[in-house]
Amino acid sequence: RKEVEQDPGPFNVPEGATVAFNCTYSNSASQSFFWYRQDCRKEPKLLMSVYSSGNEDGRFTAQLNRASQYISLLIRDSKLSDSATYLCVMGLPYTGNQFYFGTGTSLTVIP
Amino acid sequence: EPEVTQTPSHQVTQMGQEVILRCVPISNHLYFYWYRQILGQKVEFLVSFYNNEISEKSEIFDDQFSVERPDGSNFTLKIRSTKLEDSAMYFCASSEGGRNYEQYFGPGTRLTVT
Questions:
Q1: In this complex, which of B35, B55, B107 lies closest to A96 when CB atoms are compared?
Q2: CA distance B42 to chain A (A)
Q3: How many Cα atoms are found within 13 Å in the side-chain-facing hemisphere of A46?
Q4: Residues of B with CB below 8 A from A32's CB?
Q5: Eight-class DSSP state of A68
Q6: CA distances for B89 relative to A61, A91, A92, B11, angstroms
Q7: Which of A104, B16, B18, B101 has the most crowded CB, counting CB atoms within 10 A?
C-alpha cells in the first residue's frame, strides 16, 4: 500500500504559467504535511508546511483537504528556477516522526 | 542560516565492507533521522533518534545498520557489511521537535557498493 501518491508528471509549463500538483494520502491519522522540492541529485529542501486552513508563501499556495485526504500545491507565475521535483510528505503522530515521501512530481518551466 | 552537514559526499566501498556515514545536525535540534534514496526512487525512512536512543526504525534498518551520537555534535550511520543493494544516497535530517515539526536535510552521502 502506498502511503502517499503523486502524479509523477512530467509537467512542462511555460514561464508565467500557473501549475497545480495534487497528492493523496492513505492514512487518515496523518497530522503533518509538507511540500519539499528536490533538484536533481540534491537533498529535499523544505518548501512549505501545509496547514488545515491552507497557507500561502509568495507565489506558492498549499491546501489540505482532510475529508478527501489530499493536499495540493499551486505555483503561480512560474519561474525557470521552479524547475525541480516536488515531493509530497506526510508525518504520522504515533511514530518517531518518520516522514513518508511521495515519489515526486517533476516540473520543468520552459522559457 | 544553520544547516545539516554530511561527510563524505561520496563513498565507494566493496561489498562486505563496513562504512560509517557522518552527519552534523543543526545545533539546537533534538531529533535526528536517516533516510535513503535509491536512484530513481522515492526517499525512504530508515531511523529516527531522540534523547540518545532510537525512537523508530523501518524494516530496511536491519541488524546491519546502527546509529550513534558519539559526541555533542555528530550523528553517524554505520552499515556493518555492505551489500550491492545498499548503494543509494543517504540523507541525514534533523528537526527542532518531534511530531509536526519540519525536518531539514543534509546534502547527502552517495554510497556506491561494488
A1: B55
A2: 5
A3: 19
A4: 99-101
A5: T
A6: 30, 21, 24, 10
A7: A104
What pLDDT is recorded for position B97? 84
Cβ distance A43 to B105 less than 8 Å, yes or no, reads yes
In sequence order, which residues have a C-beta less than 8 Å from that of residue B67 and are 6 or more positions away?
A: B32, B34, B47, B49, B54, B75, B76, B77, B78
Closest residue on chain B to A47 (Cα)? B102
Are residues B43 and A101, on separate chains, in Cβ contact within 8 Å?
yes
- Determine contact, residues A77/A18, Cβ cutoff 8 Å: yes
Specify whether the CB–CB gap between B33 and B103 falls below 8 A: yes
Q: Which of A86, A97, A101, A105 to mutate to test the interface with B (most CBs of B within 10 A)?
A: A97
* Dist CA A31 CA A25 (whole Å): 11
- pLDDT (tens digit per residue) in B27-78: 999 999 999 999 999 999 999 999 999 999 999 999 999 999 988 889 999 9
Question: Any bridge partners for residue A19, and if so which?
Answer: A75
Closest-CA residue of chain A to B34: A98
B90 to chain A: closest CA residue? A43
Cell readout for B93 is 535530517
